[in-house]
């Protein structure tokens, strides 16, 4: 009975029009579990790092009751490293460096204690690794959510479609939904994607918010307009973490509760972009989250 | 005591990925007044057409109690004609033909009975013509809303800024808000634009909905995800017409009521795109509008 997250734990170097940072902890699993841990306490993480990964961050995970039995530490090897530079609009970005390092040979092995996971979040990694995680589960979880991207659709669409058959919720952006379905209209894209497996589709639109599709139901969740978007890195993962944390804590996967989950994800993502990397996520309190939730309600009230 | 609309009344030829139409009635004032007339009955229109303009459409205006004393009919001349072709994404479009015809010498003269207008909607025309309309008003209206576009900012920014000093509400798209303010963040753009005159800013984002900015308040209004967007022509004008119709009918320009007005505009725009030109607007009933409003509430509920 836990929320199992698979994804990367890594270092990022990020440059934005405002500032730059040479080395900050990043990776999808980092953002997902940090966000989820605000709502749900039984978080298990499956990932891999080198021996260069800071012990302080692992202690931070433990402080938040994030179990790291599944976080493999490879002695004498280096952690995954990504470096990117954002365009002036803070949406487009160029990847400058991708050093896979430990990720090149990553084999996501689930510790025995992880296999009865009730909730599973498959972060954006190779769809074959996502499938390998599903294959190790002891039973059928209440909810499996999967994040993926155009890169995997370009080079491994068959594998993406195989893993889609096994999941409940897919989260991708609008262009990826169009690529996956071959439909321009997001309503038609959702109908096509439901036939591939998922019961819910969450379309991430960055500054334009998100759309949650269920069978014959849609929820449009706004993004909070911000005076400054400092660093968008990890916002999509943080969004997913907020969603899964809310669902795991409430144990309710109705469409009505999924609306609240998507709103919770949007609240968490709005913090993520306020500082470099996960720095803002590391400092916010329950009170900050509640206040931001009130701001979202005011934004949507009519 | 009326809602005065100035804008174009024209013919359009439209091609979309779905279909094409050689000649359909269009123009900003057409869409604005057709939308507004569903909510408010004292609509006055200031525009110009040639003697080729169909009497049936003028009769349609009269059936909806739209006063056409200010609609100049130029004998022996042709109505304004625009022709455009939409890209596959139904957002981008290429203008194929712009025949100004009667619009080239348009002098917006307000009939005496129009001058005490309580509400004024300045559709997207030359900012000098918009100013000329304001100069003919007998007193200060309760609300003046203005629509403009990047074209006028490119060639007549000074005139745009002059007329902004005189208005209450500006409606433009996100890129135009950035161009006008020099700010990428829409929060900062709104603050800069408030210093130019308007008290409210409504940013149109097409399929991503709209943002209403007031002093320290924001409302995010969704767009209804549609399986088919048949023809986006006139959607922005229809949106503005719904807003002004709601405000004129309720007589309340509080931020709270402006939220409802923007939602009403979005409801009307969602109909506009369902058929070529204003065809869908000409057939919808009060019941259709109420049902669509319910769909929007379901879309936003949390």
Mind explaining what this structure looks like?
The structure is a homodimer of 302-residue chains. With 302 residues, the first copy, chain A, is α/β, with parallel strands linked by helices. Chain A is built from 9 helices and 13 strands. In chain A, a hairpin with a 2-residue loop joins strand 12 and strand 13 (217-221). In chain A, helix 1 packs parallel to helix 7, helix 7 runs antiparallel to helix 8 (255-272) and helix 8 packs across helix 9. Chain A is globular. The model of chain A has no long low-confidence stretch (mean pLDDT 96).
Briefly, what is this?
Two copies of one chain form a homodimer. By secondary structure, chain A is of the alpha/beta class. Chain A is built from nine helices and 13 strands.
How many H/I helical runs of chain A? 9
Largest interface: A-B, 33 and 33 residues
- Main pleated-sheet profile of chain A: 9 strands, mixed
Arrangement of strands in the largest sheet of chain A: 5-4-1-8-9-10-11-12-13
Shape of chain A: globular
Q: What's the alpha carbon Rg of chain A, rounded to whole Å?
A: 18 Å
């Amino acid at each position: 009975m836990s929320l199992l997250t698979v994804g990367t734990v890594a270092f990022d170097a990020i440059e934005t029009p405002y500032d730059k940072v040479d080395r900050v902890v990043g990776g999808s699993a980092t953002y997902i579990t940090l966000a989820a841990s605000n709502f749900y306490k039984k978080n298990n993480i499956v990932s891999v790092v080198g021996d260069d990964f800071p012990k302080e961050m692992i202690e931070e995970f433990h402080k938040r009751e994030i179990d790291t039995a599944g976080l493999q530490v490879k002695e004498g090897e280096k952690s995954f490293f990504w470096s990117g530079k954002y365009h002036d609009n803070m949406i487009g970005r160029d990847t400058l460096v991708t050093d896979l390092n430990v990720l090149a040979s990553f084999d996501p092995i689930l510790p025995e204690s992880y296999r009865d996971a009730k909730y599973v979040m498959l972060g954006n990694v190779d769809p074959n690794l996502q499938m390998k995680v599903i294959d190790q589960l002891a039973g059928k979880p209440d909810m499996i959510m999967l994040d993926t991207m155009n890169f995997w659709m370009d080079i491994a669409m068959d594998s993406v479609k195989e893993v889609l058959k096994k999941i409940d919720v897919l989260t991708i952006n609008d262009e990826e939904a169009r690529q996956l379905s071959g439909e321009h209209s997001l309503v038609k894209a959702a109908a096509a994607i439901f036939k591939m497996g998922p019961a819910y589709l969450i379309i991430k639109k960055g500054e334009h918010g998100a759309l949650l599709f269920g069978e014959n139901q849609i929820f449009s969740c706004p993004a909070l307009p911000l005076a400054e978007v400092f660093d968008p890195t990890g916002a999509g993962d943080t969004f997913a973490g907020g969603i899964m944390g809310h669902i795991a804590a409430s144990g309710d996967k109705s469409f009505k509760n999924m609306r609240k989950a998507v709103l919770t994800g949007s609240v968490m993502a709005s913090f993520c972009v306020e500082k470099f990397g996960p720095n803002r996520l590391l400092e916010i309190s329950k009170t900050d989250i509640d206040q931001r939730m009130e701001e979202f309600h005011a934004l949507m009230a009519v």
